[in-house]
């Protein structure tokens, strides 16, 4: 596929080329022999975000599937949350973009130590917003040079459009409620044991917990309520939701709640 996966402000063409019959999709679904096809070459117009998947058949031989994401117009935005050790004075993050790998043709990767993160005021967590949908990140203590005495950092971490990473515990799926909904509302809520699965999910989100929940809300990443139900069920249909990242807010009889992130395929 040409050009390489990227973002451009204006619509553009992507060319898939090869020796044989090309079978392809543009919505991220897996192509089959029933998918759209062309011989040797096909051009796809990128006027919105598209995930192109394709394979080639030549003389009875089928290639592996190639998958690439292309972007135009709106630049994807990712949110990175990080909880450093209490001994760190400040936190920085290096961001190596994967999808898109450039913005309007220019790479936007950061170099050591990367931008300084901002305190959220929530239980020692820091935050930064960057332009990416998928990236590799590396958190560090903002030392001026890498590999010098006093320089501390994590390994390279693959992330999606939102990540919560604790230096001690790694990536977590049950971030403190105060990160998302504000420090005043839920800062002192106790931690509860709740499991949601499968995650990512395409149809039915299942909830496993001994807590007697009375209702739930589903929120998008901006905090907008997408769905609300005052009756709780351990199996919630989410097939109608567009693909993306969401939160489910589970409420108990005392009006305490648990906030968990899930991904809709």
Automatic annotation (TrEMBL):
GH29D-like beta-sandwich domain location: 8-67
Gene3D superfamilies in alphabetical order: Immunoglobulins
Signal peptide positions on this chain: none
InterPro entries recorded: GH29D-like_dom (IPR059177), Ig-like_fold (IPR013783), Secre_tail (IPR026444)
Alphabetically ordered keywords of this record: Signal
Domain Secretion system C-terminal sorting intervals: 196-263
Domain of life: Bacteria
Name used for this protein in its record: Secretion system C-terminal sorting domain-containing protein
Organism of origin: Chryseobacterium ginsengisoli
């Amino acid at each position: 596929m040409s050009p390489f996966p990227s973002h451009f402000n204006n619509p553009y063409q992507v060319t898939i080329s090869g020796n044989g019959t090309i079978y392809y999709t543009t919505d991220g679904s897996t192509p089959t022999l029933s998918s759209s096809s062309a011989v040797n070459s096909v051009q796809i117009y990128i006027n919105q975000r598209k995930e192109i998947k394709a394979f080639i058949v030549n003389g009875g031989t089928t290639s592996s599937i190639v998958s690439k994401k292309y972007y135009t117009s709106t630049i994807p935005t990712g949110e990175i949350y990080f909880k450093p050790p209490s001994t760190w004075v400040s936190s920085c993050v290096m961001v190596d973009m994967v999808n898109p790998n450039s913005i309007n043709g220019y790479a936007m990767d950061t170099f050591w130590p990367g931008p300084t993160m901002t305190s959220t005021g929530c239980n020692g967590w820091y935050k930064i917003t960057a332009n990416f949908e998928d990236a590799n990140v590396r958190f560090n203590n903002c030392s001026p040079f890498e590999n010098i005495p006093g320089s501390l950092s994590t390994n390279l971490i693959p992330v999606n459009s939102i990540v919560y990473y604790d230096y001690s515990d790694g990536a977590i799926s049950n971030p403190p409620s105060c990160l998302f909904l504000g420090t005043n509302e839920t800062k002192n809520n106790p931690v509860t044991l709740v499991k949601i699965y499968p995650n990512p999910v395409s149809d039915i989100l299942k909830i496993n917990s001994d807590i007697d929940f009375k209702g739930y809300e589903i929120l998008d990443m901006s905090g907008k309520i997408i769905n609300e139900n005052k009756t709780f069920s351990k199996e919630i249909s989410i097939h109608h939701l567009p693909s993306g990242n969401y939160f489910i807010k589970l409420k108990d009889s005392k009006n305490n709640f648990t906030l968990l992130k899930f991904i809709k395929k």
